[in-house]
Amino acid sequence: MVGIFVFAVTGALVAVRKHLDVFAALVLAGVTGLGGGFIRDVLLGATPPAALEDWRYLTVPVAAGLLTFVFHPTVGRLERVVTLFDAFGLALFCVTGAAKAVSLGVGPVPAALLGMVTAVGGGMIRDVLAGRVPVVFDGVLYATPALAGAAVVVVLDRAGASFAIVAAAGFTTCLGWRLLALVRGWRAPMPRGPANV
Amino acid sequence: MVGIFVFAVTGALVAVRKHLDVFAALVLAGVTGLGGGFIRDVLLGATPPAALEDWRYLTVPVAAGLLTFVFHPTVGRLERVVTLFDAFGLALFCVTGAAKAVSLGVGPVPAALLGMVTAVGGGMIRDVLAGRVPVVFDGVLYATPALAGAAVVVVLDRAGASFAIVAAAGFTTCLGWRLLALVRGWRAPMPRGPANV
Amino acid sequence: MVGIFVFAVTGALVAVRKHLDVFAALVLAGVTGLGGGFIRDVLLGATPPAALEDWRYLTVPVAAGLLTFVFHPTVGRLERVVTLFDAFGLALFCVTGAAKAVSLGVGPVPAALLGMVTAVGGGMIRDVLAGRVPVVFDGVLYATPALAGAAVVVVLDRAGASFAIVAAAGFTTCLGWRLLALVRGWRAPMPRGPANV
């Protein structure tokens, strides 16, 4: 739920910065917080998604969206805190996403990918709806830590480790890598040569 | 079917105005008319969607798309009529969407949201495919009436009212609010302060 | 698999030309190669999609994405070859997409449409994620051959022809039409009058 809240705040912030209305803030909060899990559940055929069966999941992005819409100058100043919590959300989602895929009997490679999709999918829908190219495409090291964390979950689960160890290892891998990338300014490889579009 | 037709006309109009080809007119007509219901059915796991099981649903957007593509100068002049019928479509879809979600056993909060998604989802896909930020994000009161109509459906259904009364009340709520918003120029709240992107 | 590979190369090429990072190249390769089939399977309720059950499907776009990212100046020069293979992929996908829909008991009209969606859907997601209006909307004769090929598959299957004949006829129809459109520069009808957006 903390993960959903933080992701939802980033969604609402994008809406406010694009000067969209309060409905956009709520929708972008909702898709950012819940979208990744929706994609995973739809692809796995595990419908309706958990968030539609328990209404409390739905109140979290609504609250996050309204709070951000009203207090956005304050939230905007807390950008570093949001980025930090966003890294926690990322680590949380890649672990739960991969764990759910594994528990539904998917093979290891798709399970790791679905863990990553759970973590970054919501943000990609947010960016497409807000009319911009997904920020994860722009050289920030964001999806790679999520994939790494999900892969750790899958591998350790195969090795028979207990869920607590599996989750802790995946979470730490993703969070550590992401924070290091933030602190050191690591960038993903870009294509050689000038852009020609 | 009337709702699908009107929504499909708005989709094809967007294609024509962006100077896209006849295929785009058909696709945008199709996603606008059927997209909201597809999202609802996929999230509910009620697949394949009804529109894929009865080919007559599919002919409606094709007809609407072709007619709009050929006669678009005329349709463009009838913009006010289209907007009026679009409000009818909105009211119709939020009621049928919420009713279907309730009949499939979803809880009240998600059912109301799915009613709104059925009504506005097609238009959002249309706008994303046409390369623009969804118009529902831009301060027009469009999604809120749909959510209100869907909520009325859910509440009255819980209270045990007959389907005719439930549907009529939800339809009237959404249509009335939307038409009032159009006539009086009501706007959704925008964020305070200047846009900073 | 050849079809997935070629489609994935076009996805990665778009990422490189937009100067996006290596992750974007992999994601766009993945959605272009597999996205059409995912949409079809999700709409049909045939989840999880085949590509998630057999990890070899997933390695194809990864390989295509990495190769294109590293050797993109060479791949860019081979644009004509890519376009040629892309036509093969299109013909292959519309046939397999329509055949799968028919085998799952969908009616003829939706089956033909799903064949087309399998062939062009991945490219449309690619373009939306890359922040541009889908190229299939821009007057190139691309979706129409796919629809024709899928329709041939559906009609011949109804007539009781063997799968080999059905597949060969659909494949030839789509490929022939697409190649003729490329060679002769055929264009889809555009709306009359000037663009007014």
TrEMBL record, chains A, B, C:
Bilayer disposition of the protein: Multi-pass membrane protein
Membrane-spanning ranges: 24-43, 55-75, 87-114, 135-156, 162-183
GO CC annotations, alphabetized: plasma membrane
Subcellular location: Cell membrane
Cytoplasm as UniProt keyword: no
Swiss-Prot/TrEMBL keywords: Cell membrane, Membrane, Transmembrane, Transmembrane helix
Glycine transporter domain span: 1-72, 84-157
InterPro entries the UniProt entry points to: Gly_transporter
Keyword Cell inner membrane: no
Recorded family membership: Belongs to the UPF0126 family.
Name of the protein this chain belongs to: Trimeric intracellular cation channel family protein
Organism per entry: Nocardioides seonyuensis
